[in-house]
Amino acid sequence: MEPWKRLSSRILHASRVGNLEEVSLQRPGSPEPVRFMQLACPDWVNVIPLTEAGEVLLIRQYRPGTDALCIEIPGGMVEPGEDPAVCAARELTEETGWVAARLEPIGMVEPNPAILTNRCHTFLATGCRPSGHTGFDPDEDIETFPAALSSVPGLIADGTIRHSLVVAAFYHLFVTRGGR
């Protein structure tokens, strides 16, 4: 099996969070091109912030896609030309008002490779302490609260934490790193 050849792409709608594009691809062994819709989005980051007391900082915010409040971890879009680690530090402070003594990459996932072009990078932030300064985006309304790190598997199991990228981030922490 080999990758398909991209013949063309056309932006149907451009926005701050990504472009809706129609792409034409040539499948190996097929004479007819195939058209797909994709969302060309910038990379994203997720941050698992651990306080000096060993708690994880969680955030609660409204998500219009599901029309619900979601329990998550800080995260956001990587700006053009920005290093994901720089973005992770920025998003941690902007969304929680906390800063990390240390940031370490612990994993990466492709959020939905069927239609999305981006990746989501997960960072572990340790030694977090309050800075007192948030910087919410105009469309953000975020509540930050600490939780015992040991409570997270139960919060995932009972559906309290259901954001797939947050679940993937904790997978990187708990399964691939043993929770450290």
Explain what this protein looks like in three dimensions.
With 180 residues, the protein is an alpha+beta fold. It has two domains: 36 residues; 134 residues, Nucleoside Triphosphate Pyrophosphohydrolase, CATH 3.90.79. It has three helices and eleven strands. Strands 4, 7, 8, 9 and 10 form a five-stranded mixed sheet that branches. It has a three-stranded antiparallel sheet with strand order 1-2-3, with no helix packed on it. A three-stranded antiparallel sheet has the order 6-5-11, with no helix packed on it. Strand 1 and strand 2 form a beta hairpin. It is elongated.
CATH class of the largest domain: Alpha Beta
- Give the overall pLDDT as a whole number: 94
Largest beta-sheet characterization: 5 strands, mixed
Named at the architecture level, the CATH assignment of the largest domain is Alpha-Beta Complex
Report the principal-axis shape: elongated
Helix content: 10-25%
Low-confidence stretches: none
- Assess the beta-strand content as a share of residues: over 45%
Tell me the count of domains: 2
The number of distinct β-strands equals 11
Counting helices, strands and paired strands, the structural category is alpha+beta
Compute the CA-based radius of gyration: 18 Å
What is the count of DSSP helices, taking H or I runs of 4+ residues? 3
The string of secondary-structure elements, in order, is EEEEEEEHEEEEHH
